Here is the input.
Amino acid sequence: MRRLIFKSLVHGPLTEAAPARDDAAVAELAAQVDRVARRRLGRTLSIRAVDAGSCNGCELEIHALGNVLYDLEQFGMRFVASPRHADVLLVTGPITTNMREALERTWQATPHPKWVVAVGDCGRDGGVFSGSYACVGGVSAVLPVDLHIVGCPPSPVALLKGLLALLESVEHGVAARGEDLEKHREHDQHQQD
Here is the structure.
């Protein structure tokens, strides 16, 4: 035991150094996201993260957005605990058959305007779990997806850039499909009745 303690004191921890922080780029990204979110929504962007059956790799990167290095709040975004307070559903993992209904209910509980972001390769098309009996597929198999952020897992910077791209597409009117799909589903139900 002494040998192990002595070795750890002499050699130090086996961790990677933190990535170099480009303060100018971070400040520019923060100002741009905050400006777009406030102009479009009149407030900060509220995000609800939903794990629909992932390996937790994407969740680790999403949680890193809240640490001191990335500090999501400086970008005018925040995570919320309830879909009733969310603007964006950040969905990770392939959709498992057990999580399909829960994800649909979460989407229905989210007020308009709402957007869905599929995170990671599994969220895009099922990834390595594609074709499994336990998976429905990617997020687009269950919900209308406004943005795919690829990677296994995507880095926190890629997540921030993806959310900025979503806000910019919303600002230009490209990603306003949530209400249209809801109206389309209601119309289909009335015709079936």
